[in-house]
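Task: complex structure prediction.
Instruction: return structure tokens for all chains below.
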Amino acid sequence: MSKRCDHLIDYMNGHLSEEEKQAFEVHLETCSDCQEELNELKELTSDLGFLSEPIDPPPSMKERVLSAAFEEKAPTEPEKVSEPVEFKPKKKNRWIMPTMAAALMLSLVGNAFLFTELASSPEEGEEIPSVSIDSLVQQLSLQPSAEDIPFEARASFVDKDQHQQLIVEADQLSQPADTEVYQVWLLKDEEPYRAGTFTPGEDGSGMSTFDIDPEMGFDTIAITIEPDETSEQPEGEIVLLQEL
Amino acid sequence: MPKKDVDVYVRLRQGDKDALELMYDRYGKLLYSFSYKMTEDQQFSEEIVQEVFIKIWTQKSSYDETKGKFSSWLLTITRNTVIDHLRKKRETASEIATKEMAEDPDPSVEDQVEWNEKRGVVREAIEQLKPEQQNVIVLFYYRGLSQQKIADQCDIPLGTVKGVSGLP
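Output:
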């Protein structure tokens, strides 16, 4: 923790001078404490806007807002432009998120617990119960098998104490029909092994974790849509496929 | 309904005006209400919403899956826009009286289901906090005050602000 870390809140709330802001951003590049805190704060507060009491905007506002927008240049399909660092997690830390997601349970009930816990025990240097140290072995983004498939996925292999864990995160998934599920497969010499099953949440994102044996030496990862969660062999459409 | 957000967004990105309109129908009120909660000024709130919609239409702010849930992303953009404006008229910001977390208003208001549900959950969560913690959240998140001002208004030592706001 350096003195700079104290600027985190003022950075988030835009209270730093241009100079201080730049200095903080430089600091943020290298300070994992601040990166984590920023992400954590963002997670914790991301739903607070929903607490707003409903107020009806003036009926004519819609017209004003839309025509103001339409006066601007219409969007074009953008190349991926990286935006200035706001509060988004740094790419290289993406793999932290599944762990953190679990910790925060991504729910406000969890958040409230954290708020309360952290607030009632703000002392520093508290003993953390023994933890196993996970280390990221490999991370890759998975390419859709066809161009018209919009979604994206990432796979991370994490070394745990006794085994390895495969974490697959996917976004912009279309909702599968009825009993259909997304099935992750690991392949070795074209022999598929089940490696996690999931269905997307309302927002089209999904995640699965699966314990694997690193000795197996898998060479390919794939995601298919299966008729249900019992498929022992891939039967459905392959949506993502990637060599390891 | 929200599961289609991404689809609508994809259309919007391709310049489909109907998609932006749909987005307004879906989120205009939420963003307006949120802006109002932060600024307590209707005119100001409309300007904020307008700016947010310009940002998403022109792709000045563009969404992708690394940014989390779409609705949360919209709220973040909105908050950042407010914070930006507040910075520009800093002097008035501190004069806005701190309000208590408001009572639940007329429950018959037709909101989006998601918003309603979320509000219930968030409220429940917030209510578990001590009043002074709630106050810190109001000052930090909705008012966007500086650490020093939060400490002053809450009469707590500066160093504690981070702790109370949920940071270790």
